Amino acid sequence: MNTPTHLNHQTLRDRQRELSDILPESLSVRVHRALSWLDRAEQETGDDDARFIFLWVAFNAAYSQDIADRQRFDERQLFQGFLGRLIDSDADQLLYELVWDQFSGAIRLLIDNQYVFQPFWDYHNGRKTEAQWQLAFQSSKTAAHRAMGQMDTLKVMGIMFDRLYTLRNQLLHGGATWNGRVNRKQIFQGAEIMGRVVPIVIHLMMSDHQRVWGNACYPVVD
Known about the structure:
The protein is mostly helical. Helices cover 66% and strands 0% of the residues. The longest helix is centred in the last third of the chain and has 24 residues.
């Protein structure tokens, strides 16, 4: 299919209607839910906290799996595998362009930001020593910069989403003040990145609708 020059709720909704007869039911549910949250996020122009949260819920609607034994699976493992499937489906290299041409600077800043690195908070909560979190941070940054040097899109996106997941936890679990004065930079960066990633995710899932994306959580029940 031809890739739209601008992916947003409206263009993706139009594409969903075009594909309505051939999208598998489970994928159709995922796309419908993700688009509803993307629509709400696009209306939020002055509140980066809310915009990030709406975008994360949209992303979650797209990737979340119906797994019987969730205790055996880490949430990070789920979306790491999901990212791999997306990149396999990305014939037009939209994610590659996003990482290397559009947001390489913002992604680097996010990766180098200690406030979205979970072991930093583990140290402040007494679960790690200062030396442990600093060593882990340096190792993570080294791995990220090596992946950037090798232009390893999957590796970079995996580390980026690990940082975004910490940011997600801070907001959704009440670990941050709404519209607070401290640590605002990563909220804005996270919202900007997710605002570009989520439409691409929905686009790729519809484009590769024959791929098995798994059953959606909480099926539609009348």
